[in-house]
Design a protein that fits this description.
With 180 residues, this protein is mainly α. It is built from nine helices and two strands.
Length: 180
């Protein structure tokens, strides 16, 4: 498994959204929901319209951990969700394959993200990039590693900081500033 990085540059995030918007509204929505919720791809893909319609929270049982997870839908995300599901049936999957009507697979989500990431000059991108990007920018805004640790269900703050790439950024800066 390859190590993936968060998208640190907000301009790159907007460039990816723009590319995805022209490619597929579904793909843009997947990226937008992913970077704004911090949910794992395995928890995003099976979501249905009824899981988000008229709800204040996304409530799931995490596939990886089996733990219950409740994520608040803020007003900006609510607007995006409402626009996306406007003409959809309650039982439809949010990220349905055009061919089968079933959720797209993780491999397809990976291809979607990787292709647009390359177009904007990013490497080390994968499905976890959305979750890591959420964590990175949440931490940059709040500096609250304990809350982020709780949101991610991590065992220690050090795990969270390593996961979102903060430790790597600190090490890289220390090396940049170091010379004998």
């Amino acid at each position: 498994m390859n190590v993936v990085q968060p998208i640190r540059d907000k301009n790159k995030i907007e460039a990816i959204k723009d590319l995805l918007r022209h490619q597929s509204i579904r793909d843009e929505f997947l990226f937008t929901l992913g970077i704004n919720s911090g949910l794992r791809i395995s928890d995003l893909l099976p979501l249905r319209v009824c899981d988000v319609k008229d709800k204040s929270h996304i409530t799931i049982k995490e596939k990886k951990t089996g733990k219950d997870k409740r994520f608040k839908i803020n007003s900006n995300l609510r607007t995006v969700i409402d626009e996306y599901i406007r003409r959809m049936d309650e039982k439809e999957f949010l990220f349905a394959s055009r061919k089968t009507g079933l959720p797209i697979r993780r491999e397809q989500a990976y291809k979607i993200l990787n292709n647009v990431a390359k177009e904007v000059g990013l490497g080390e991108i994968g499905c976890h990039t959305m979750r890591k990007s959420f964590g990175f920018h949440f931490y940059q805004k709040t500096k609250d590693v304990a809350l982020l640790q709780e949101l991610f269900n991590h065992s220690a703050p050090s795990v969270t900081l390593r996961y979102i790439g903060i430790n790597q950024d600190i090490m890289d800066k220390a090396i940049d500033d170091f010379s004998l």
